[in-house]
């Protein structure tokens, strides 16, 4: 299996502080990774490196077989699908849900042409249907609930048929039903052999959908452990990652974690 991502000794330093500190990590084709860690650990910074939008201060990065610094990122970026709050803020609120997804086919956030190919429109409708958004095609993006916005963004990220899909906290801000709905949909995507390789950032083990294969634990910019979910996701490792005693349990194909009571 070829590498989709390969980071070697990658550091991102700002104001004398390493936000990501000598990270070496590789993602092989078909793997579905979760990046888990506390607030400020460096998860989004790592994802921004993986998306080619952030160049590291030191170390080397290969994305989809291309070396960052030696490749035209404008050719690389359409091969990467992204969904996260930073991108959502750039999406015009007045644009309809269908247009929001369609514009991705043209590498833009806002629509400037009225005419789209039929095939693009069919694809946009199909992705929105897969994410349960068929009833919202003509709704303006700005009027959607948080959950509907998240699902629209994921449909949008899939529109360019990416080889790598990066999701930054897709379940953040969702209520219990919204989270469970999205986890099920992400699980279906994760188990689809034709779906792209995936990396999802989260704070919560409850958001790990079935089908995700690997976990990277990060704290203060450093990788504590990275590997297959069953091997890495232990109570000891999670306690170290979040800095307090936690018990993690697997229930069927889902995970839960809770803190030990104070004595
Ligand atoms: N441009 C910057 N200059 C200085 N510090 C920065 C910059 N960008 C991010 N940081 C800091 O780097 C650290 C890591 O940020 P990052 O957003 O990657 O963390 P995160 O794990 O995604 O956090 P969260 O879970 O809270 O979203 C944080 O302490 C943040 O304040």
TrEMBL record:
Residues 5-245 form the ABC transporter domain. Coiled coil: none annotated. The keyword Transport applies. One of its GO terms (molecular function) is ATP binding. Keywords: ATP-binding, Nucleotide-binding, Transport. It holds the Pfam family ABC_tran. PANTHER family: SKFA PEPTIDE EXPORT ATP-BINDING PROTEIN SKFE. This is ABC transporter ATP-binding protein.
